[in-house]
Amino acid sequence: MSDKKMEKKLRHYAKEETPDVKERIKASSVYRDFMEKRQPEPKKTPGFNWNRRLAFGGTLALLILAFVFVFPLFQAEASSTVYMDINPSLRLEVGEDDFVKRLDGENQDGEDFLEGLSNLRNQPFDDVIDILVEEAIDRGYLSEDNPYLMFDVISDNEDLQARHLAKMEERLPEVAQDRVPNFALMRGSSEGVGEEERERAQQHGISVMKSRIIDAILEETDDYDYETLSEYSVGQLRDLMDDYDISPKRPGPPQDTSPFGP
Amino acid sequence: MNKNKLENIVEAFKNGDETAFDRLYEETKTDVYYTILLVLKDPSLSEDIMQDTYLKMIENIQSYKRKGEFKAWLKTIAKRLAINAYNKRKKETPMDAAENPNLFESENRDLEKRYYLEKLLNVLNEEEKTIVIRHAVLGDKHKDIAEDLKKPLGTVLWKYQNALEKMRKEGGEFDER
Q1: What is chain B's alpha carbon radius of gyration, rounded to the nearest angstrom?
Q2: pTM
Q3: Which fold has domain B1-113?
Q4: In a mutagenesis test of the A interface, which of B31, B48, B58 is the best target, namely the one with the most A β-carbons within 10 Å?
Q5: pLDDT tens for residues B31-69?
Q6: Would you tell me which residues 95-114 of chain B have a C-beta closer than 8 angstroms to some C-beta of chain A?
Q7: Which of A215, B29, B31, B94 has the smallest C-beta neighbourhood within 10 Å, fewest atoms?
Q8: Where are the alpha helices (DSSP H) in A70-122?
């Protein structure tokens, strides 16, 4: 193991093994007093008669209802959904501030994969990518024999989607290539997934991205069936795509965005 | 995280944003803890001083002026509190390093949890531990470490390489993780 890798591993362990005293700090009077003082003081309201109070209360109730049901439609915080498939299939919700808001396993392998990791919510997106890739290599999901990582980013906000896509394309090879020199990044497609499509993928324990590749292959040949192909790795499916000359064009099968891919 | 981003989070925390504290904490906890551990060499006591460091930071945050050195400022608080605790403990129970070969271990540690770094570091002597933690974990330059330890830079570099080699030999099992 090179010095750089060793240092990276030490930093990773150091972070993981740092004791967590956050809740103790938050429970302290120092923290609570500080937060209390920083909150704006409530304004004193002039005296109302009962009629005016009722009218005011009614208006306020209407405003609250409007605020709760209508305002969020326009004000929902922008985020993107990042899908990663290395057999464990993962889904990350990443906010505009580039912090991971949510992280879930899309299949059983994905859930098992995340179980062994410390909480990655509210961590910077870059750090989470690093940890996930390092862990995938440590556990043998990514290796020279299995060098493919498939991903996609979906968001209603085009700028955010482009930014997070660029981050994945830049960061993933940077982290993985040290240990997997033939690492290859594949762009999958998760856009416009229907309930039925998602359910079928889930039943077979694979991601929608992988399911779409399988469908594209099955359109070209009867030599395989969905069951069989769902057991294939992303790399094996990629080979089949080459065999049947399937064009990696979105939406549908993945695009190969890596200069390091075959 | 770059310094500017961290400073923005500090500003948000100063204005009472609770989530900003979570981010500040996540971003600095490792530096704070290992700065203290290097002085005290006792994980349980270091944990207490780590908490005190953040409380002290909160009490003084309004006097912190944005100059891109928040982490350094926080580490200074951590080091000062750790030295105070070390001196206090020394007065109460005189400690001799030679009598405590496993200074990074504590009886109060959660035995169920696997401490990989601790196990790796335990193949090193105290000086090697300091050099490795300061460079690999805290990101200090070899030149600064050499100055603090009053040793030639070449010696520190050699000791660092030596320490990594020892850990590499010890760490075979950790690579499988």
Answers
A1: 18
A2: 0.49
A3: Rna Polymerase Sigma Factor; Chain: A (1.10.1740)
A4: B58
A5: 999 999 999 988 889 999 999 999 999 999 988 886 768
A6: 113
A7: B94
A8: 71-75, 108-115
